[in-house]
């Protein structure tokens, strides 16, 4: 048996024996599951805001009213937005 085959057999045996010890009810997976159950409610909006997205202006319009139609237009629009934000922040 070659050295590489021996190493592969040892690695396979080791990883197979580790895998059977970690199930969703025990080990690191159980702790992650428990944490997720605690924080899950914070990943959805409160009922009064669910489905309400607000009246926001589309980012696909320039400030002068032109529409963004091409990738080049979008690059220009991004620079326009960035410039406005930098102006507002000082």
Separation, N- and C-terminal Cα atoms: 71 Å
Low-pLDDT stretches: none
**Rg, alpha carbons:** 27 Å
Q: Which percent range fits the helix content?
A: 40-55%
User: What percent strand?
Assistant: under 5%
What about the largest sheet? Answer: none
Tell how many strands the DSSP assignment holds.
Answer: 0
Shape: elongated
The number of helical runs is 3
Describe the structure.
With 90 residues, the protein is mainly α. 53% of the residues lie in helices and 0% in strands. The chain has three helices and no strands. The radius of gyration is 27 Å and the shape is elongated. It starts with a helix and ends with a helix.
Summarize the structure.
With 90 residues, this protein is mainly alpha-helical. Helices cover 53% and strands 0% of the residues.
């Amino acid at each position: 048996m070659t050295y590489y085959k021996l190493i592969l057999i040892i690695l396979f045996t080791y990883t197979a024996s580790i895998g059977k010890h970690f199930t969703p009810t025990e080990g690191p997976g159980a702790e992650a599951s428990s944490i997720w159950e605690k924080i899950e409610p914070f990943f959805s909006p409160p009922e009064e805001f669910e489905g309400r997205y607000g009246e926001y202006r589309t980012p696909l319009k320039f400030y002068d009213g032109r529409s963004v139609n091409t990738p080049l237009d979008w690059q220009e629009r991004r620079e326009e937005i960035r410039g406005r934000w930098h102006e507002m922040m000082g």
